[in-house]
Fold CCHC-type domain-containing protein.
Amino acid sequence: MAGSSGRSTTNANCCAYYCLTCKRNGKVIECVRGTGAYSGRSSAPQATLQTQAPLHTQTFGNKKVSLQEFLKLKSPKFTGSDNSADPQSFLDGTLKALRALECSSERAVELATYKLEDMTNTWYETVLLGRLVGATPLTSDEFTKLLKNHFLSGSLIKKYTRDFERLVQTPDMDVSTYNTKFCKLSIYAPYLVPTEEARVKRFVDGLVGRLYTGMAPQMKNLSYFDVVDLARKIENKGCDEHAASDLRECFRCGQLEHHLRDCPQPPGNFNQASIQSVAPTQAVHNSSGATCTRNKG
C-alpha cells in the first residue's frame, strides 16, 4: 500500500499524513483525513515528551473551520530555524484564534500544522510516520507538548525557569501584570507549582506589601482564580483610598482634612504655584506598593 515515498495513500490525490507535495497542491484537508495507515515506523527519532513542556488543557469547540477561514486570520508561520524563538508565541497566536472560532481540537492541529515550514514541517511528517497504524488524530494538547519539547531550546527553558523562580511583584507592577508573568513563566517550571495549592502559595508569597498581608490568611481556602481576583480588589481599594485622601487636600494651602472654602489661610496668601503642583496627573504608590495614576486637579 505504501509507495516509494514511504507514505500510504487512500487515492491518487490523497496521502495519510501531511507532505510537502500535498501542501503545495492544496490537499491539506484531504490528507489529514486519510486512513492513518502507515507503512511502519520511521527510522528517524520521534520526539519524546518531557516535563519542561507540560500539558495545559485547551478549550475548543466542535466546529470544522475551513482552510479559507483559517487563512483569513493571517496567523504566524513557524520554521524552527531560530533557536532563540519560542514556539509558545506561535502556539499562542494560532491556537488562540482557532479557539475563538470554536474550532475542534483535532481540526485545530490540522490547520495549525499548515503554518509549519522548513524544519518544523519535516519534523511533523516524522512524528506522523512514527505513530501507530490507526492512531487517533493528535489533539491540540498533544501537538503543543510535542512541538515545544522538540523546538524549545534548553537555554530558553533554563532562562524562563530562573525568571519564574525569581518572580515577585515589584512596586511598579500591578496585580494583572504580575499574574500574566506568573502564568506565562510557570509553564516552564511545572515542578515548582505541581498542585493548585502550590500555585496559590507561590503567587501570594510574591505579592507586595499589604496585598500579601491581606491574602496570606485566606489563601488556603481559595482557588488560584479567586486569589488573583481578591488581590485585584485589595489593590483597587488601596488606590481608591489614596484618591479619597487626595480629594481632601486644600487647593490653597495644600493641607489635608479641609477644602478651599474652609481654609484658615487668608485669600491673599493664595499661591498660583500651589495649584500647578497639584493639578497634573501624578503616579503615586499606595500602601500596597502598587502604582496608581490619579488626576488631582
Observations:
- Confidence is low (pLDDT under 50) at residues 1-57, 243-247, 270-284, 293-297.
- The beta strands are 9-11, 14-15, 281-285, 291-295.
- The longest helix spans residues 224-247.
